Amino acid sequence: MEGYRRLESDLQGLLELWPELSAEEREQMQPELERAGRELEDLYHQTLLGFPYAENAAIVTIKPGAGGTEACDWAQMLYRMYTRFAERKGFSLELVDLEPGAEAGIDQAQFIVRGENAYGLLSAEAGVHRLVRPSPFNAQGKRQTSFAAVEVMPEVDESVDVQIAPEDLRIDVMRSQGKGGQGVNTTDSAVRVVHLPTGIIVKCQVTRSQQKNKEMAMNILRSKLFEIEWKKKQEELARLKGESRPIEWGSQIRSYVLDKQYIKDHRTGEMRHDPENVLDGDLESLIWAGLEWKAGRREAVASADEE
């Protein structure tokens, strides 16, 4: 934070001096001004990623909500959006589970994104995403609304103390199937791990190795149990401090209104009028605005649409 403030002060000094400079001096100073601006932005972004586990990999789960086939298709569109985001950032994406929808789209996608501050960035995407468009699944092309939920949690390794008793687990082995299991559906390689005390179910079916699938499923279960305890501690800390932030999970954080060509984040008021680019993974402005909101540096706005 000290480096950020120092650079901000230096940049402010340059801007105050700017009107007094000649055209030639301004031309000479322009590269320095642009460099300082980029450094200031980078340092500011670092201050938004100062929360625990921001540097960890992100485990992302996408599930369709209300909307039937339309919602399943929307979940698949979101999966593609985050896949493209990872590609743009040079991150790796490891698929854990992909279950096809009954008619189209997907019933669930779960994957791990690894890269610099992957969890920190993608944590801003957790919540319910709303799609409004003329439905391609309706013969009359009627305008429909559908929802999908995005869950994001940090991946934790075995060095983090998470107690899992063997008697609390039920491990089922089954045949891999669907899009997530193409190429491996001739073997009983899919694994489903059930944590009996919490009812948490984790499935993995994307490798030919039953052992590898089990290890991935256990890693995700460990991360889920860790997140539950972590959130309990954060909620208790907030209670002791007298804080009363609304619960974010399950709330509508963003609307994608395709026939009117806009996307609105309801937490921040951030608007985009290029939905094609956003759905192709261009999420930077939305993510940084969301992180500002999480850090309390951006005022929450009313969640009503412009419609």
UniProtKB/TrEMBL annotation:
Protein biosynthesis in keyword set: yes
Pfam families: PCRF, RF-1
InterPro entries: PCRF, Pep_chain_release_fac_I, Pep_chain_release_fac_I_sf, PrfB
Domain Prokaryotic-type class I peptide chain release factors: residue ranges: 175-191
Keywords assigned: Methylation, Protein biosynthesis
Cellular compartments per GO CC: cytoplasm
GO molecular function, one term: translation release factor activity, codon specific
Similarity-based family: Belongs to the prokaryotic/mitochondrial release factor family.
Protein name: Peptide chain release factor 2
Native source organism of the sequence: Meiothermus taiwanensis
Gene: prfB
